[in-house]
Automatic annotation (TrEMBL):
The chain crosses the membrane at residues 36-59, 66-86. Keywords: Membrane, Signal, Transmembrane, Transmembrane helix. Residues 1-22 form the signal peptide. This is Uncharacterized protein. It comes from the Bacteria.
Length: 95
């Protein structure tokens, strides 16, 4: 038991130094990242988030239940602020 705990701690600490450079390497993917982030935070991402919210509300109204409607609204909120949160997490010095 103690050996496995020690291994897990060693494994976690070995990746600690690598996580600090998570957003500074891989320049060959910078154009792809810029396109995906721009699409997710731009009009495409907003349109998908609003569409998901409307579909969830319509399904919830059709079924007469609140859970699908709340899931649609939650999906719209996460879709609109999610890319910024993910970018902040990977852009931080320590994850």
């Amino acid at each position: 038991m103690k050996r496995s705990v020690g291994f897990v701690i060693f494994f976690a600490l070995s990746f600690l130094a690598l996580s600090a450079s998570a957003s500074t390497t891989g320049q060959e993917f910078q154009a792809f990242y810029d396109w995906v982030f721009g699409a997710a935070t731009g009009f495409l991402g907003r349109g998908i988030a609003i569409t998901a919210g409307i579909i969830g509300l319509a399904i919830g109204a059709g079924m007469g239940k609140a859970i699908p409607a709340l899931m649609g609204v939650l999906l719209a909120i996460i879709g609109s602020i999610g890319p910024t949160i993910i970018n902040s997490l990977f852009g931080s010095a320590l994850i």
